[in-house]
Amino acid sequence: MEFEEIKVRSYDGSLDRARLELLERRCEVGPSHVFLFSDTMGDPICRIRNSPLYIMLVAELNHELVGAIQGSIKVVTLKDLAKVGYILGLRVSPFHRRKGIGSSLVHHLEEWFIGNQVDYAYMATEKDNNASVNLFVNKLQYVKFRTPAILIHPVKSRPLKISSKVEIFKINEENAEYLYRRFMGVTEFFPADIDKVLGNKLSLGTWVACERGEHAQFGQNGNFPSNWAMLSVWNSGGLFKLRIGKAPVSCLMYSEVSKVIDKAFACFNMPTLLCSLFEPFGFYFLYGVHQEGQVSRRMVRALCRYVHNMARVDVDCKMVVTELGRYDERVRPHIPHWRMLSCLEDLWCIKALKSEHIESVNELTRIPQTKPLFVDPREV
């Protein structure tokens, strides 16, 4: 019996949705510790739908859907402005691995990038995901680029205390765009269309924190306090949900006990997530975290607590998440997070798709990171 060659084509919702859901379930294999799965709520391209340009490809073998991949394109700051393609959602059926399906999907996506004049392709994976690292770094010539941390904080049943010395206020989209372009315009992967991000219906707003009493003078005549911080909030739960998988026995026991304790002792400040451990839930993503001044880290902490308290009144939101580059390590201790769910070393890899940019990639990866990393909420 002859087998057909791998066929790669664009995703067709009317033909592929059910088969893609089956593929996703088959690929739900992860590490032994707690990890998270995405629940796309019937919209497989939800994670890229808000990008300026995007595509989803599927692979068929003998009329069976055996793989899928997604990609998006945008303009960002690297050394200069550059057009980049982001690769995500690579899935290959466990029954059809080591047949070149993953490589074929990536090659086809790269061809789509090149056809759209993309300068660089990049992707993110867990640092200890050996299969993914081997495919992209060892086989497809991607270069290890950055190792940001994904910090996850479960929403607790009671509000977090915010220092009375810090004042927090919301700013409009126009002022937020001004601040981001002025203070983060040269940040790595800063999106040229930051106005589209801030104006998206999933962006809940931008907040600034400063010393109490300095709000009225903030930004007057282009002047700013010595210490201040800002961040924006994206409602990722408006796109897709998360759920926990393969939790250890201790976590399962805590989940069951927490339900009883939470009912009996409402004063216990426990993560509400653990009271409904395996039900799909939404989360808020903090992006554009920026601080100015020697003691501005406590402003960052106050902002994070403020967003946590916002999330408490959203019955769907069970986590607050952010992602920071290694350059921002001085800020990480001031961002509440739970180590069991957080990933302290994610891995970004990059590849030049144009020969004239190969040396630029080498330079970017050779030189230690000296700038913050902007994580676009549209690609979370």
Structural class: alpha+beta
- The beta-strand count equals 15
Largest sheet, spatial ordering of strands: 1-3-4-5-6-15-7
- Helix count, DSSP H or I runs of 4 or more residues: 8
Distance between the terminal alpha carbons, to the nearest Å?
A: 43 Å
Succession of helices and strands: EHEEEEHEHEEEHHEEEHEHEEH
- Estimate the helix proportion, in percent: 25-40%
Give the radius of gyration.
Answer: 22 Å
What does the overall shape look like? globular
Mean pLDDT: 87
What percent strand? 25-35%
The biggest sheet, with number of strands, parallel, antiparallel or mixed sense and barrel status, is: 7 strands, mixed
Low-confidence stretches: 30-34, 247-268
Protein name: N-acetyltransferase domain-containing protein
Pfam family, one: Acetyltransf_1
GO molecular function, one term: acyltransferase activity, transferring groups other than amino-acyl groups
Organism: Lactuca saligna (Willowleaf lettuce)
